UniProtKB/TrEMBL annotation:
InterPro entries: FAD/NAD-bd_sf. Gene3D superfamilies: FAD/NAD(P)-binding domain. It comes from Streptomyces seoulensis. This is NAD(P)/FAD-dependent oxidoreductase. PANTHER family: DEHYDROGENASE-RELATED, PHYTOENE DEHYDROGENASE.
Length: 483
């Protein structure tokens, strides 16, 4: 923006942001920073969305609601621009980023250092290093390219091409680069964060993004729980003169205060219901046909002495992936996408307390674990998750002193963006990963003048990085500059 435009928007432009998850908060803070008069409306009694934290089982024992480990957020250009450390956010790193144990007692191990990870991967080390290291070295320049809309002219085309070509592959195809079952399993577990069958095109994209950003910045946790990210974003918004109103549930567009721009941290289905026939017909059609992905079933555990993993390095890892071999994970991901509950689902375990000991109470530690389940799954996956933990940590059940389950319906009740337990806010199919919720050069635009979508349904997708909000805020500012 020119200095003239910046002065004009400071004096008269207004913005309303509906939804106070990390993307809505980031969008609101960036618009307020640009000089707009910003009001954020949140339906819950506090901001946070997927980045909330709570004491679920024991006073002082702190669990994260959904988003927990943040390799994409630490190096996020949006969060850096907002200087959240000035507002109390502190990132903490575990000794070991991720471990993927196998039944024979071995494991794939991921460390912050590419070189050290490559050394542990043995015969696959050189290939892993050749795949990952060039993009890690250039991550500061690459982050803005990777964490934004794909259909645009890149600022660093050669860097983006070097990173992007392998991302087009199915995760099972990229796995052929490696020979050891431990490396293949480690890669499969990271690629499975996409909640997609691993044989589909572009299923390497999210996994490679996590790997590269994680090596560049670490698989960090927020001190004091993921709620600290939301709290810091809210403080940044308030510091720039914005306002937050909670317990405001929007069900129709007439409830939204008049403003020059309106941003929606909502899934496309909610946007279609709120604006109805005011949306262009093509947008309305696309939003109503927006595809949802599989769900998550989560358990919060209080574990005395921590989980007794068979593999020693898993006892020091912030994240542990449970799913067995590449073939087993690929099969379970196919099942949940097809609506079948696997006997052995893919399970992610978070041991955030290892980096942030203040979340524990004495020798009782909070453990966060969720399984991939079919969309809208109504069964109880608790036992399936516990069996997967016990499979790689015999005796773990005997240490559990408390348990609380969050079903797919529970996720949806706490956050309407997570309909059916779909915590990614939409299936990461090729069209939705590349184009966002509708085919257009500006995936944040709803086609309704001055109204923009900023949820995780837009690029670059889910996470606490705030980049969906940053992209929508940039679109809103370009719109204002044309007025």
């Amino acid at each position: 923006m020119t200095s003239t435009t910046r002065t004009r928007t400071r004096t008269r432009a207004t913005a309303v942001v509906v939804g106070g998850g990390p993307n809505g908060l980031a969008a609101a803070a960036l618009l307020a920073r640009a000089g707009l008069d910003v009001t954020l409306l949140e339906s819950a009694d506090g901001v946070g969305g997927g980045t909330r934290s709570y004491e679920a089982l024991l006073p002082g024992l702190l669990h994260d609601h959904c988003s927990a480990i943040h390799p994409m957020a630490v190096g996020s250009p949006a969060l850096r621009e907002l200087e959240l450390e000035r507002h109390g956010l502190r990132w903490l790193l575990p000794e070991i980023d991720c471990v993927h144990p196998l039944d024979d007692g071995t494991a794939g191990v991921l460390l912050r250092s590419v070189a050290e990870t490559a050394r542990l991967l043995g015969p696959d080390g050189d290939r892993y290093r050749a795949l990952i290291e060039p993009s890690v070295r250039q991550w500061d320049a690459l982050a803005g390219e990777v964490m934004g809309p794909l259909l645009r002219v890149p600022s660093h085309p050669l860097l983006l091409a070097r990173f992007g070509l392998p991302t087009t592959l199915p995760a099972t195809a990229l796995a052929r680069l490696f020979r050891a079952p431990q490396t293949r399993a480690l890669w499969a577990g990271i690629a499975a964060h996409a909640f997609r069958p691993l044989g589909r095109p572009l299923t390497s994209a999210i996994g490679l993004g996590i790997l590269v950003s994680g090596h560049a910045a670490g698989w960090a946790v927020a001190e004091g729980g993921s709620q600290s990210i939301a709290d810091a974003l809210e403080k940044a918004l308030l510091a720039y003169g914005g306002r937050v109103e909670t317990n405001v549930r929007i069900t129709g567009h007439r409830q939204i205060p008049a403003a020059d721009v309106t941003l929606l941290d909502l899934d496309p289905g909610q946007a279609a219901r709120i604006y109805g026939d005011r949306l262009p017909a093509r947008t309305r059609f696309a939003y109503r046909r927006f595809r949802r992905g599989p769900g998550a079933f989560k358990i919060d555990l209080a574990v005395e002495g921590g989980i007794p993993w068979t593999h020693d390095k898993a006892r020091r890892a912030g994240t542990v992936h449970l799913g067995g071999t590449l073939d087993e994970i690929a099969r379970s991901e196919r099942d949940v996408t097809a609506g079948r509950m696997p006997e052995r689902p893919f399970v992610l375990v978070g041991q955030q307390y290892l980096a942030d000991p203040g979340r524990s109470v004495g020798d009782v530690h909070p453990v966060w674990a969720y399984a991939h389940v079919p969309y809208g799954y109504t069964g109880d996956a608790t036992e399936a998750i516990l069996r997967q933990i016990e499979r790689f940590a015999p005796g773990a059940r005997d240490r559990i002193t408390g348990l609380r389950a969050t079903t797919p319906a529970g996720f949806a009740a706490a956050n309407a963006n997570f309909a059916g337990g779909d915590i990614l806010t939409g299936a990461k199919t090729v069209p939705q990963l590349v184009l966002g919720p509708r085919p257009t050069l500006d995936p944040y635009s709803t086609g309704l003048p001055g109204v923009f979508l900023c949820s995780a349904a837009t690029p670059p997708g889910p996470g606490a990085h705030g980049m969906c909000g940053a992209g929508a805020a940039a679109s809103a500012l370009r719109y204002l500059a044309r007025q």
